[in-house]
Amino acid sequence: MTKADIISEISTKTGIEKVDVQETVEAFFKVIKNSMIGGENVYVRGFGSFVVKKRAQKTARNISKNTAIIIPEHFVPSFKPAKVFVDKVKNNSKKTKAEA
């Protein structure tokens, strides 16, 4: 499912025009991105957490030149789904596979 599909489905279910739904969805993602860029985590109860994870400095190898390089510590965005959400997906996946 793409972002366009999500916008279309929300528009159909709510009766709100696609343009307004698109602006809302874009604003939602922009708030999440800006919060994470600022180092803040975003928690959506029942859905999951958008968290900033710290990766420690490590030594890696450049195989083609046979040299060691240092990768400095850095931060990466991550998503951790809520337990309720994970359980619903697990239960639904089992039903779908059993029917096939």
Automatic annotation (TrEMBL):
InterPro entries associated with the record: Hist_DNA-bd (IPR000119), IHF-like_DNA-bd_dom_sf (IPR010992)
GO biological process: chromosome condensation
Entry keyword annotation includes DNA-binding: yes
UniProt key word DNA-binding: yes
MF annotations from Gene Ontology: DNA binding; structural constituent of chromatin
SUPFAM superfamilies: IHF-like DNA-binding proteins
Any one cellular-component term (Gene Ontology): cytosol
Keywords assigned by UniProt, alphabetized: DNA condensation, DNA-binding
Cited PANTHER family: DNA-BINDING PROTEIN HU (PTHR33175), DNA-BINDING PROTEIN HU-BETA (PTHR33175:SF3)
Family assignment from sequence similarity: Belongs to the bacterial histone-like protein family.
Stated name of the protein: DNA-binding protein HU-beta
Species this chain originates from: Pedobacter insulae
